Amino acid sequence: MTVTFDPASYKDTTRAQWEEAAAAWHAWGPTLEEWLGEATELMLDTAGVGTGSRVLDVAAGAGGQTLAAARRVGPTGDVLATDISPAILRHAAAVAAAAGLTTVRTRELDGERLDVEPAAFDAVVSRLGLIYFPDRAGALAGQYRALRPGGRIAAVVYSTPDRNGFFSVPVSIIRRRAQLPPPAPGQPGPFSLGGPGVLEGELRAAGFRDVGSQVVPAPLRLPAAADCVRFERESFGALHQMLAGLAPDERADAWAEIGSELAAFEGPDGFEGPCELIVAWGVK
Fold first, then answer.
1. Residue 227 and which of 49, 141, 146, 214 are 20 to 30 A apart at CA?
2. CA 267 to chain centre
3. By CB neighbour count within 10 A (0-12 exposed, 13-18 middle, 19+ buried), where does 223 fall?
4. How confident is the model at residue 238 (pLDDT cuts 50, 70, 90)?
5. Does residue 66 come out as left (phi exceeding 0), alpha (psi in the -120 to 50 range) or beta?
6. Quick check: 186 pLDDT over 90?
């Protein structure tokens, strides 16, 4: 079966899925920060985020990393959280307000068309966002423009499917059941930047220098496989996008198979889903 990839339609669907999943993604915030915390801190370290920094957060989602950046920059800094989904940004803004972080701003923006002042930021960060951009070159060009000379970029992505069973198992099951072909090279997806040197190459192509990367083991720990299924079923927009072509009963069958397969990652101490992240960085 030949499927023509339509970037505009993909982004419309992505926005709709995140609008729907926003509340759930926010509700899973504590799990997200425990799971992604080490990679987030490394991202902020390598982006040089510190007191007084002006930070642009691209594809910010519900803003866990936004808040971490805001705590670092203090009252003299500034953090602009951007996302394609206004619903999820409302959660980010509310959490920042509740935490008393008055330096956080939010703005609905397409990460591929960053309408921000050129050379206005010291750091650009993106946590698990760049992988879902159809035009990554355009997105990185916009991030490059947003940085001042000497400013730094850092991003978190998944590595390869074989190192991320908590996510690749559901993806493979849904792809088979929905009869979806594998993504073509360059198309967006959870593992689209995970190959050795791929993200680093994209950063260099965008003009960044002193590019580097580090692998971060990040197992997803939950009480049971059923909790992982609930987490992904409630809040993983990419999986919902892939399931869209199946009837409700077929979707239920897919989730049942996913739960059965993920149970292989249960042990005496609960569920530990394999996950490996890459943090990459560069300098303008």
1. 214
2. 28
3. exposed
4. confident
5. alpha
6. no
